[in-house]
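URGENT: need a sanity check before tomorrow's submission.

F., can you look over the D-beta-hydroxybutyrate dehydrogenase record below? I want to be sure the sequence and structure line up before it goes out.
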Amino acid sequence: MKTFELLKPTAGLRVFISGAATGIGAAVAEAFLDAGAAVYVCDIDPVAIQAMQQRYPACFTGVADVARAEQVERVIAQALAQLGGIDVLVNNAGIAGPTAAVEDIAVADWERTVDTNLNSQFHFLKHAVPALKKTSRNASIIAISSVAGRLGYPYRTPYASTKWAIVGLMKSLAMELGPDDIRVNAILPGVVEGPRMDGVIAARAQALGITPDAMRDEYLKKISLRRMVTAQDVAAMALFLASPAARNVTGQAISVDGNVEYL
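Structure tokens as predicted:
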């Protein structure tokens, strides 16, 4: 097989993506659909899910609050029935969580961030791994962490804590599932352009008592390439990790961030 052909995901991959009606998740879903994969996406927002279904009628969709274990189990069962199995699990769902000093963080906000960002990944893994063990199509788990999963992030401790934990979960599973020929990797996006990042910048600017424009400049100064990344940049890495070219790539936390130097 020619080298460039190795970069193409295996035809007909069955892909499940959580939190995928907007943002990075939607970009990943669109990339796999364009590559000929069968894709199931879930999201908490029924309006966004409906819009995704309208854009991509071939895409299977479901609505779920990923912080609820029973809802995760339900959408995984639906995906298995509709796809006939799962070859690639993309654990993407997550929230920004509160922006505050640790002593000012509400317990409910902390718990919601952990339930959504970290515990949901466990719930999806628990129900998807048995299906991944049955496939012979380059089985892969891709966990979406964050550059905050390798750096400290003041005033964003709930978010950073979950993203560090995702990397630990990934590295442990790469060892556990390697003998089953299942690869496990994490993508660590940096500062991603879009409405969500605009909201994060505004909240942090308010916490620090500066303008949003000044806060945005501060973010860019911390990036070696002096630019934000796009959701499509992250999607391209996900496609690579699901391709034959990455058949020996596992246990890796791969940053797509322009080299964020500090947060």
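My own read: The chain has two domains: 3-192+232-256, 193-228. The longest helix spans residues 107-132. If you see anything odd, call me.
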